[in-house]
Amino acid sequence: MSTQAYRQILEQVRNAFPQPVSDRMHDAYFVFSILRALDQVDAMKSEIPVLGKAQQLDYNTAHEAQIANELSSVERVSEELVHQFEGMPIWGHPHTQINVVGPSSIPSIIAALLPSIYNPNLVSDDTSYGLAVAESAVTAMTASLIGFDPAQATGVFTFGGTGTNLYGAKIGIEKAFPDAMETGVPAGGVLFASGQSHYCRLNVAGWLGLGERNVVEIPTNLENDIKIDLLEEAAREAIEGGKRIVAFIATMGTTDALGIDDVEAVVRLRDQLVEEYELDYRPHVHADAVIGWAWAVFNDYDFEENTLGFRPRTVRALAGVCRRISKLHLADSIGIDFHKTGFTPYISSLFLVRDRENMRLLVRGREQMPYLFQTGERHPGVYTLETSRSGSGVLAAFANLHLFGKTGMRTLLGHLVEMAELLREHLEGHESTTVVNDKNFGTVTLFRVYPDGIDTWTIKDYERTDISAREELRDHNEYNRRIFHYLHEHAMKGKGVHVSMTDCYRHTNYGEPIVALKSYMLSPFIDEQHVELLVKNVLEAREKVDSHGQQTS
Ligand SMILES: Cc1ncc(COP(=O)(O)O)c(C=O)c1O
Known about the structure:
Helices cover 44% and strands 12% of the residues.
């Protein structure tokens, strides 16, 4: 009796899996279940740039959630799944210009889905077969794209841009403190990065046992790139104080402004220090290019000929970024996120090293992993931090590199930069708005809006450099916050463009955070009319904020 009861349930359970041997009826049910879920998500689309309605998130109910006694069904669970997307921004919507999150191409979505069905595990080619080859192929394609010799380089996909920095710093630790993997990280290591590098430098230092306090943040120039003279001073001071340099992190595309460090100068400095101080190790240079890498597709674009026909302003902007991105190959290792500027689903992050011998520093003994690697020839699991690694990120990157090729990527990026440049032209053309990352040329535009009577030609420098501007700067920060809230509400009603705000795009010389509004363009569907709408929204927001200010004053 009890056997009978469980057997019936087992049938239902089996139905909820793709069949191991093709069964046309069931295959149709599987595919149709996905289609139905997609249809339901699609029904949540409207003119506003979010799925369904933005609403208050209900954590109280979530905290009371319990696992049910009874079995549910594919249909009911699918509805539940769809429901979780209520309020999600649609990243591909031309009115979504929030952050460095792009939409995923169809092949990259299929690429992420297939491994979900067949569960390859990249710990080894034993368990991932062709996907291990795909990882090698993506590594080779990306290595040659950025200028590494693919015969010398190697790479591994990991758990995000943060993971790529972690790998870079870990290799650096092993170089500065041989055997740290076995014996632990001794005191006295330091890591250098710019003040505008991503905050994950702190996670990395904390989690690797280096310690957050041993991260030295170097101020940046107005271009938001690291000040090489100050880096040199700090590095010399560290060496002379008996410290060992674990890594220099060069940020090749900062999160807010797309500031790009001069990696060539960082490498030159490292080499000079090694020689001068006769260091018995070579401090590692890691390039955090998780955003900027994609511009490498222009490394061999003939800007003079400009066969794709970009406007002169766009050509200048693209060439301006390439000037430094073309030097990426000088770094010892590089972080690359396809989920940022490669149009794939999360997570698709590649850690690349110029010299594959570097990976040896991370290898554990085979005897530590007795149950793995009995067959096959490639076992990244002997040096990866992770044990199980999904194939989705690898295959998604593989899909887009094949889909776009250089021309597709140039077209996408070139168009986005063209739109960002158009926005800049508009913002520069208005008396009350000003672009603050005017010396960076990406798809992200940071700008500030000012009330009547402010001279936007001079205010930026005054606020940034003169301590007597502190109160005014704070007022204007607040003014921009109010503009942002108006824009946000407006966008949520389906009437405008959804931009974001950064509380501190950089500090003033006297230590005060500068707020900026941020338009991050990554939707391939953005066109002139969306740029014009954003400018109109901003000017309207300004009027509303001004009139409200007058009413309340
Ligand atoms: C420059 C930079 N590095 C690292 C990261 C961290 O990447 P992830 O969020 O994929 O871990 C980011 C995230 O925005 C970033 O902008």
